[in-house]
Write a structure and sequence with these properties.
Blueprint lengths: L1 E6 L2 E4 L4 E9 L1 E12 L6 E6 L5 E3 L7 E6 L4 E6 L8 E11 L6 E4 L3 E6 L1
Parallel strand pairs: 2-11
Antiparallel strand pairs: 1-3, 3-8, 4-5, 4-9, 5-6, 7-8, 9-10, 9-11
Length: 121
């Protein structure tokens, strides 16, 4: 069994910072790409940032220059450092990992349960 557990969400004023963490655990053989998504009320889930196993990153235009994604392969953990937060960043943030476990013969996508980020104006 594989689990992704997020932490670090909360309430912050505009201009503030938060750091999200997502740790993968269970019968993991290897982790490929890891990513953060977010979903605001009434909107579709959107990609915020992604990072490959080699460390290459990409970001949504709306967060470039403010958010930084990183990972610690030894800890099977991905982070999202969010600076200069805006009210429009308010959403539930989800992490996703594409990984190979000893459950399936091919890599699968796994999702965390989500963590709320609220930015007040």
């Amino acid at each position: 069994q594989v689990q992704l557990v997020e932490s670090g969400g909360g309430l912050v004023q505009a201009g503030g910072s938060l750091r999200l963490s997502c740790a993968a655990s269970g019968s993991i053989l290897s982790i490929n790409a890891m990513a953060w998504y977010r979903q605001a009320p009434g909107k579709e889930r959107e990609l915020v940032a992604a990072i490959t196993s080699g460390g290459s990153t990409n970001y949504a235009d709306s967060v470039k220059g403010r958010f930084t994604i990183s990972r610690d392969n030894a800890k099977n953990t991905v982070y999202l450092q969010m600076n200069s937060l805006k009210p429009e960043d308010t959403a539930v943030y989800y992490c996703k990992a594409n990984l190979l476990s000893n459950i399936y013969v091919r890599s699968q996508d796994y999702w965390g349960q989500g963590t709320q980020v609220t930015v007040s104006s």
